[in-house]
Every structure is written in C-alpha cells, then in structure tokens.
Amino acid sequence: MRKGWMVLAVLVCLLAGGCWDRQELDELALAFAAGLDYDMEQKQVKLITQVIRPGQMKSAESGGGSTGQGGQKASFILESQGKTVFEAVRKASFQISRRVNWTHNMVIIFGKGAVKAGVDKFLDFFVRDPEPRPHQHILVADGRMEEIFKFRPNLEKASAQTLEGMMKNAVMTSEIYPVTLQEFVNDLMSYSKAATAPVVAVIGEGKDQKLQLVGTAVFKREKCVGKIDPKETRGMLWVIGKVKSGIFSVPSKDYGEVGIEIIQASSKIQPKLDGKELTVRVDVKAICNIGEQQGGEDVSKPEKLFRFQKKLESEIKKEIEKAIKRSREMKADIFGIGEAFHRKYPKQWKSLEPEWEQHFPKVKFSLNVKAKLELIGESLRPLHAY
Amino acid sequence: MIRYLAKLFNALAKRQRSPVKQSSVTKLDSGLTHNLKHIMDELGNGSDVVNRQFLIGRSAPVLAGVIFIDGLVDQEMINDNILQPLLRIELERPVDLDVLEKSFLAVGGLKRVETMETLVEGVLTGDTALLIDGQPSALLLSTKKWEQRGISEPDTEVIVKGARDGFTETLRTNTALLRRRIEHPALRFDTMKIGKKTRTEICVAYIQGVAEDKLVEEVKKRLRRIDTAGILSTESIDQFIDDAPFSPFATVGYTERPDVCAAKLMEGRVAIIVDGTPVVHTVPFLFWESFQSPDDYNFRLFYANTMRWIRYLAFFTSVLLPGVYVALSSYHQELIPTNLLISMAAATEGTPFPAVVEALGMGVVFEILREAGIRLPRPVGQAVSIVGALVIGEATVTAGLVGAPVVIVVALTAIASFLVPSQVESAAFLRVVFTCLAGVFGALGIINGLIFVYIHLASLRSFGVPFLAPVAPIVPADLKDVAVRVPIWMMWTRPKSIDSPDRIRQAMRIRPEVPEEGHDDDRS
Predict the structure, then answer these.
(1) Which residues make beta-bridge pairs with A282?
(2) Each residue's pLDDT expressed in tens, for chain B with a length of 524 residues
(3) Where are the beta strands (DSSP E) in B6-125?
C-alpha cells in the first residue's frame, strides 16, 4: 500500500512540475531576420525583427510576391529599442499578441550604427540565449537596413529567406563567404584573425529593386576596417581553402573567352619563422573543368589544354595577390596566418601575438598554385569555325 | 482502514482455500430403471436428453437402455451401428456386457464404466451410454458428432503466401490439424479438464524431446492451479497463466494458424489448445515474435526483411508518433524544419485546443470509430466509416476545431498499429501514456517514458525466458530471426533462449548450390 502512495506522490510532483515551458504553435511569432543598429546619441540598441505570418506564407497566391489572403503581407517588421539586445528583444514581443521565437531566425544583419559601435556587444545575446541557432548567417547592411527588411522578393515570401538562399548559392561563385554566427564569433574572439561578413545592399528603385551581395566587410576585433570586393574575397578564400566552386574566364587566343569551372580546390598554409623573418608558403590546388569555349582553339588537344592550365594558374595567383595586398593595407589578417604560426610556433607566438598587427603586413607570401584541367565537356571540337 | 480491508480480504481468501469435500462416488446399481432414473435426474430431465429402452435377444430377452444427448451425437451411427445390431441379436443365452464389449457393437471408441459420475460426464461430452438390466456397469460408446464450423482462413491472421487453414472451435479438429503437420509420434497432446461447471477440455501440445520437460511441467502446473467455475475462451486461460498480469505486454502468444502453431512447437514451445475457441496459445512468448509473420518465411529474403523492418518502424510509429508530434509542436519548435514548421503553424492557426488535447481527443475519436466498426453489423459499419472519415476527419479540420496535422498523425498511427497484430493492445495503451508524457514534459517525458518501458520489458519473463531474449540478454545464436531473418537453410539450430534439449534443427551445410560440372550432363 505504501508503494501506491509513493507512486501517487511522485505523480503529483511530476504533473505539478510539468508544462511550464509549453508553447503552442499558434502562440508563436517566428522571427526570420534580426537587424541590429545602434543609436550613438541615445545609447540605444535598435532592433528590427522580421516576423512571418504562417498562414500567409502558405497561401498559394504568390503573384506580386508577398500578399496573401486579406491582402496581408507574409511578413512584417517589429522595431524596438533597448539598452541591451535582450531588452530590445523582449520589447519586440511586447508589441504583438504572441511571443517572438528566435529558433528559426536565419540571418542577423548589422546596420551602419552597429558596425561603427563595434559588433561584438550585439552578438553575445545570440550566443548566450538557447533559442537562436549558431548556424544563422551574419551580414552587414550597406545603406538603410529597413530597405532590406521591407524588400519584397520574387520567389520567397520574406527577404530573410532570399538572403538565406543567396548564402547557400554563394558556393556557385565563391565570391562571397557565407559566414555563420558560430564562425563569426570564433573569429571575433581570436586575437589575430580578422572576421569577415558579406555586405548586402538593396539596389535599384521601386519594382526593379533587388538584393545584392556587394562585397565583404573586414573586422579587426569588433571594428570594421574596410571592405573587399568579390574578386578579392575569392582571393582570400583560395588561401583558406574555402573555394567550393566558381567560374573563371580566360581569353582564347583567337577569339572569345573560355569559361572554366572550379570543381574542387584545396590549400595548405605552411608558416616559417626564420629569425625575425616571417614567411608563409601557400599551396593551392585547383581541379577545373572546361564549361564553355567561345573561340576556335581545340581544347581536346593536350597542348592547348596545358596552355589554359598555365593561364588559369596565373589568374588564380593574381586573385590571391590582390587579396594579400588589400589585407596588408588594412593590416587585417583575413587568412588566419597568425593562427597557423600559433600552431607551429607556440612559444615564439607569445612574443608575436601582441604586435601581430605590425608583423602581419611584413609576412612574406610564397604562392604555389597548381591548377588541373580535367574534363572538357561533351563536345570535342570547338563550335567556332576557322 | 486500508489495513483493515487487507485483513478482511486475507480472511476471505483463507476460507476460500480450505478444501471442500465433494468427490462422492456413486456406484451404478444393477437395476436398469433405477439407473436410468438416476441419470435422468442428474441431467435434470433435460429436453435434449434422449432415453430409449428396448429388449435384446429373442429366446432370453434382456431389457437394455441407451442414453445420449441430442445434438452432440451422430444419430445415424447410433441407429446403424448400435441399435440395429443389438435388436437383431439371436442368442440362446441372455446377453451381458462382456459379450457386447467384444462383439455386435460396430463402434470405434468403447469404454466400460462403473460409476455414475463417469457415465454422466461421458454422456455430456457426446458419448452414448448403454446399460443392461441386472448389471452394475455400463458401456460408453463414442458417438460424438456435432455441428461445427468448417476449417476456414482466420480473419485475424491473413497471409499472402502459405496455408489457408485455421483452427476451429473444436478441440479434436485442432489437434488433427497439428497431427497433419507434425506426423512424428513424439507430438504429445496431454489433456485436462478445467472449470467446475464448464469442464472445458484443455490440451497441452508439445513435442517430446524438443520441448523442455521442465517447461511442459510448468505449463501443466500453472493450468492445474486454475480453480474456477468456467473457462469460456483461451483468453481467460491466458490471464490465469500469465507471468506479468499487470503489464501492458502479453507474455503469452496466440495464433489461429496451425502452421504457425506447428512452427512454434518445432522450436520447442508448448501450445495450449482450449476446446471451444479457435485461438491457440503458445508459450514462452518473446517480444520479437510479435514482429514475425508467417509471410516472412514464405517470401524472398530481401522483401521479407524489408517488411519486417517496416513492421518495427510501424510499431514505433504507433507508440511514439502522437507523443513526438505533441512534444515537437508544443515544446521543441527548433527541431522542426523551418518549412514544415510554417506548414504546421499555418494549419493549427486558430485552433482552440493545445496539441495534447487535440492528439488525445482525436485518438479517442478513432478508438470509438474502430470499436463501432467492429461491433456494428457489416452494412451499418460502412456508414460508420464514412461518417468517421468524412464528417469527423474532414469537418473538424474545416471547422477549425483541430489542426490537419493532428488528423494525419492520428490516422497514420492508427493504421500503423495494425501492422503488428499481437502488440495492438500494448501499443494503444502506451500511445496514450506517451502522448500525456509529451504533453506534460515534452521530449524529456518521452525519453524517460522509453527508459521505463525498456526497464519494464527487460524485467519481464515468459515461462522463465527473458521477454527481450535474444536481444537482452544477448544470445548471438538466436539473432538469426530478430533484426534480419537469415535464409531458412542457415537456421540450423533451434532458439537457444527457449532451451530445447534437442538443439540441432537441420543439417549445417544445406545451402543450395549449382551442381558441379558434369553432374548435369543428362541434358543432352
């Protein structure tokens, strides 16, 4: 009998303790994008939240983009302010009937003010709170941030989805590196490596508006020190081995251009410390295919193929050199060279670390690019007649 | 007060246990009329009791009488094989039972009885009693025959490839079906009668030398313990001999198929056949047997194993799906893929109840419909399914009472549970438990519930064999029929978990092979 009472007692404890964090689906407001900005004068964090309306998201009516039944838009914007991000987040929920849920947030976008004020203090909330995912993407807004949030995409229902898709498609060109919250925060916390984030802008007016990734912002610690363009970004990605795919155009001898597709690429960074001299040997290997041939050169002939291969190698080298030049100008170690030194020379690194900013521009790079053209596609002879 | 009740209950139980003297034996009298009257009184002068008196012999006629129960006997046989020969006897001296026992009666089964009790019992099972004036004993002639259902395919265990016969309500037919499949003399049918009033014949079937003697003894011991007025179905036998009466999982298996039953006997199990029901029970019953279908052994290897895995999946679905749905939708939205979440959120927009209430409510609605579908006469049953599918399924969603996902989840769960027929009952119970746990604690509740269920399963035993064997405890030799069913020719030992004294089932190297070159030269 005692057993029965015990079971009852345990049951009461359990049932009384349950349910406390229950949240039905129709009590949630799903946030898809967060925009962070900072008002220097009032010292206020400004938060823009893109919240979706699930019913409108699902409506079949997609003409015009984002209005569903009853003319309601599939997403709307909440603007809130607070001394901290957390306060602004809570105030966002305060404006609507449901609680804003961050578990499916896709992108965090920094506005001009936030970039100026230093981005690190805005990110702690997103790392500390259990709701936001570590794999959402970090972006920097070029121009007015509200425009990005109010942008009406053609395919998707909310601009956050478009940005998320663009991040996935970044591998097509490798001219943008879609950095995740986790990676970004790791780079921010690193003493030597500079963090980077893609820059997004709304281009055009009215109906012709489109979202575009215009480059990459480079952060030294929390401060933005400059911007590099897409080609320079790929130069950087070659070195850190993050090039997944992409297209090169190499001029054909007689006429037109040859389009070359990167299939696979890898890199190896070997630092060398020789007295006071810092050198880095970078080996880049790229496997490419020929995707298009406008001219009349017969790429099925090995000697022609080798010529393009040589050309390709020098093109890649040029891209990398450009990126190195920019990084020296900014004194920002976007390649993570410092970390490579740290790994190889942990003892000497202790003396290098405090002045890495001074050391980095003096690091000598020796580039070693090996490109290999493998497949030439399904047509053997060039289309262009002599 | 609870202690007082317990005391009272114990006292009652003690009084129950004290033996009651009852087995009084009445010897048969030598006077025929007296005997007949006594028997008729014993049977309460029932309208189905037939009592016929006649004279045997021309020169020295003796009064004789037969008694039988109409409907339990073969009337034609009584007329042709008993009454006719007896009425034509032309002996000089008066006949007695010793003569009749040896000659005249063209009946297969014949037994001399001395006491009133055995006589009445025999008559009640369909025998015909033959009594002769002046003799204190009688003959019981086996004339059993009654209306019975033909052998048909069991509705509950339909298979695609394989035998189409099923057990019937008659014990003799059932034992015959097993004898037809196992023609070895070692097949034993040990019979006993249970139930003071119903006197149900119960048959313990096993193969001597294949089934462990200790197991057979244990089964008989448990059956003998049953001291009740009546056994009307095997199900009640099952509950009397169960290892864990309060478990949602049955530790006694059942089948309506003689081929399945024979296969289990061949593995060293024991079957319990009860007269009056087509359901035969087999022990020991292990958890994994629930997922084995006769079709598994009839179909090609890969298909059979795929179907077995589908069955495992279906069982987990039927137990966990509503719980997982509730946990995800009301606690762990981050685990749902974004697009699915949008769809779910859009579908549940504006529904008045939380997900737990929706899931439990729709579950109850389904059970009501299912029960109604079984009980109602077939033509009406159709109407019920239309009402169920259209009105309740469709209208509740359109009216915004429940979300469409819940209807999908409940429907899928309900259908999935029927893939594993022997676990339908446990799945239905556990489903409700897991849904409630998920509603209160989310995934935490489901995980803890699963741990409890696993512990419980691991603690169960069926007639001394761990319920989860051969997986826990692990018996490598027996894993040949759990996760995958290996080819039949590889199953060369009997299950070790059942501990048959005769371990070897078949020769080891009987894998089918292409004959070597030169063997098939008779082609030319």
Answers:
(1) A269, A367
(2) 566 666 766 666 665 554 444 556 778 888 888 888 888 888 888 888 888 888 888 777 888 888 999 888 888 888 888 888 888 887 777 777 888 888 888 888 888 888 888 888 888 888 899 888 888 888 888 888 888 888 888 888 888 888 889 999 889 899 999 999 999 999 999 999 888 888 888 999 999 999 999 999 999 999 998 888 877 665 678 888 889 889 999 999 999 999 999 999 999 999 999 988 899 999 999 999 999 988 889 899 999 999 999 999 999 999 999 999 999 999 999 999 999 999 999 988 888 999 999 999 999 988 888 888 888 887 787 788 788 777 788 888 888 889 899 999 998 998 898 899 889 889 999 999 999 999 988 999 999 999 999 999 999 999 999 999 899 889 988 898 898 999 988 888 898 888 888 888 888 888 888 887 755 555 54
(3) 49-56, 62-69, 110-113
Which ipTM was obtained for this model? 0.86
Distance of CA B385 to the CA centre of its chain: 29
Segments making up each domain of chain A, as ranges: 21-228, 230-386
Residue in chain B closest to A21 (alpha carbons) equals B331
Query: Amino acid identity of B59?
Result: S
**pTM recorded for the entire structure:** 0.84
Beta-carbon contacts of residue B22 (< 8 Å; ≥ 6 apart):
none
Closest chain B C-alpha to A70 CA, distance in angstroms:
15
Q: Which of B427, B450, B454, B425 is nearest to B437 (CA)?
A: B450
* Interface subset of A 94-133, CB within 8 angstroms of B: 101, 103-104, 106, 131, 133
| Whether A55 and B355 lie within 8 Å, measured CB to CB | no
**Which residues of B have a CB under 8 Å from any CB of A?**
2-3, 6, 329-331, 333-334, 338, 341-346, 348-351, 354-355, 439-442, 445
Q: CATH for A230-386?
A: 3.30.300.210
Residue that is written with structure tokens 């009693």 in the block = B129
A16 in contact with chain B, both atoms CB, cutoff 8 A: no
Residue A23 and residue B333: Cβ atoms within 8 Å? yes
Q: Look up residue B179 and give its two tokens.
A: 């004898």
CA A232 to chain centre: 15
